[in-house]
Amino acid sequence: MVVGDIVTSTDVFILGAGPGGYVAALRAAELGLDVTLVESARAGGVCLQQGCIPSKAFIQAADEYHRALRLGEIGLPLAAPAPVDLAGLVTWKDGVVDKLTQGVTQLLKARDVHVVHGRGEFLSRQSAAVDTSEGRQAFHFRFGVIATGSHARSLPELPADGTRILMPRHLLSLRELPEHLVVVGGGYIGIELGVALRKLGAEVTVVEAGSGILPGIDADLAEVAVRRLGDLGITVRLGSRPTGWEERMGRLAVHLETGGGAQTLQASHVLVAVGRDPQSAGIGLEALGLVGDDGGVHVDAQLRTSTAGIFAIGDVTGAPMLAHRASHQGIVAAEVIAGRSAAFDPASVPAVVYGDPELAWAGLTETEARLQGYSVETARFPMRALGRSLAGRSPEGLTKLVYDADAGVILGGGVAGGHASDLIAEVALALEMGATLEDMAATVHAHPTFSEAWQEAALLGLGSPIHTATRIRPR
Ligand code: NAD
Q: Which among 189, 270, 317 is the best mutation to test ligand 1's pocket, defined by most ligand atoms within 8 Å of the CB?
């Protein structure tokens, strides 16, 4: 390949316009730097184009449909529904993605970020090339930022064809509802999409290699979601992994290896959701003297790699692969590049599973806190004791606070229940501020709200519960 004679100089060259890269670009431009942002697809990355946002639109729609079908239970029966129009849902979902994509594009334009559409690679620690529709363009930069994200892990036993054997992005663009979906992987994506498809009317079977679904989450929280899967009619096969598939009379026969021997499941579609890997191949890492293994590109608290002037942010730096982590890292990297004192050292990176009910947690889990040698106590408050939760048709679940037994300092918190994805922000703020149970209990929470479940859990931990009958000696 020949790089043209014209070389564009820029302060900051960012490869990848996902929630890490585009946020870094906005912040760097705001701080007065000249920024070039390279992206081969539309701005927003996997999160906006294929993952977080389209899946949340899908999940929201499925939940509303499922709830509407049950309005008869509260005296508001609807006429028999028409069949699900998945193509209509997908069109609406695409519209949501389009609006947000336009928003990101306008923001980048407003801050004078130079967006280059094409596939880029680093050639050295101060130069890069981008293959665009108008040819190969050369860049010289002072600082480089690797923000190339991650890609869905595939299974050689079930190679995706995009029509019947699907990766998550394929599933979110199906035009017809699968009759029977086999979901391989009982992690975030498998559970979120499995629940959504079930609510729309598909038969769903989850095949998970491990001994439980949603690994890493405290058992008492995960249990709520597991119970609900059963209520929804989703079958879970634990300790099972696929070994291959074949076509039988127009359907898929998916062969499994299980603790009880070989078994076969019939399906119309299969979704493969077995994790993600950092996207570090084909971007010129070698030219930078860096290696990208399964754990991703290594960085310090300022997001610097071991190569001077080169930073890395987001999923390409390994787990946890979460959009909000990437965006925060992007802001820190931009500020460090601009000469400010900044570090990525959050008290917590909250995590959410948009299943039914939603699960969310921040800080240390109970297991982690014990392993780290804290003298740990926990307080749990059941959602069914909340007025808002019952009136909101979300009676399942609980809030759980994990705290230091001596000082009552909050170490972590988790919630299974309606609005968990928003509720977890209170724990994240508590952790950043080093809050205690007293702080949380003394904060006036609006009534009736789901958020009261934190105040009640804190009161329980202090030995002065109000809306539970538990008799406890006050601290
Ligand atoms: P995951 O790591 O959450 O779960 C993958 C699951 O697949 C695990 O339980 C694993 O045991 C199982 N598995 C692996 N190989 C298997 C096999 N051969 N057969 C059966 N089971 C197998 O991965 P994911 O659900 O693909 O999600 C990837 C990442 O994307 C997550 O770790 C998360 O960082 C991110 N994500 C976040 C959200 C969110 O924030 N709400 C949503 C979706 C994805």
A: 189
Please give the Cα distance from 237 to 214 (Å, whole number). Answer: 13
Confidence at 473, pLDDT banded by 50, 70, 90: low
| pLDDT over 80 at 40, yes or no | yes
pLDDT at residue number 475: 67
Element (H, E) at 139: strand 135-146
Q: Which residue is listed with tokens 């995960």?
A: 222
Over the stretch 168-179, which tens digit does the pLDDT of each residue have? 999 999 999 999
If you take atom 19 of ligand 1, which residue's CA is the nearest one? 241
Atom number in ligand 1 closest to CA 207: 20
Say how far apart CA 243 and CA 284 lie, in whole Å.
35
Q: What letter represents residue 182's amino acid?
A: V
More confident position, 293 or 71: 71
* 262 band by pLDDT with thresholds 50, 70 and 90: very high
The average pLDDT across 204-229 equals 94
The pLDDT of residue 4 is above 80: no
How many CA atoms lie less than 13 Å away from 336 in the CB half-sphere?
A: 25
Distance CA 275, CA 296 (A): 14
| 474 pLDDT above the threshold of 80 | no
For residue 394, give the nearest of 366, 365, 423 by alpha carbon: 423
What's the average model confidence in pLDDT over 24-44? 98
Rounded distance, CA 184 to CA 191, Å?
Answer: 10
Residue 274 alpha carbon to ligand 1 centre in Å: 5
User: Structure tokens of 327?
Assistant: 């965006």
Task: State if residue 189 touches ligand 1 by the CB under 6 angstroms criterion.
Answer: yes
Strand order in the sheet with 240-248: 240-248, 251-258, 261-267
Q: Which residue among 55, 182, 276, 324 is best mutated to probe the pocket of ligand 1, counting the most ligand atoms within 8 A of its Cβ?
A: 276
Tell me the CA distances in angstroms from 306 to 290, 291, 311, 334, 341, one per residue in order. 7, 10, 9, 17, 19
Atom from ligand 1 closest to the CA of residue 157: 18
- Contacts of residue 193, Cβ cutoff 8 Å, sequence gap at least 6: 55, 58, 59, 168, 171, 172, 183, 271, 273
Q: Please classify residue 336 by burial: count the beta carbons closer than 10 Å to its beta carbon, then call 0-12 exposed, 13-18 middle and 19+ buried.
A: buried
pLDDT in tens, 354-364: 999 999 999 99
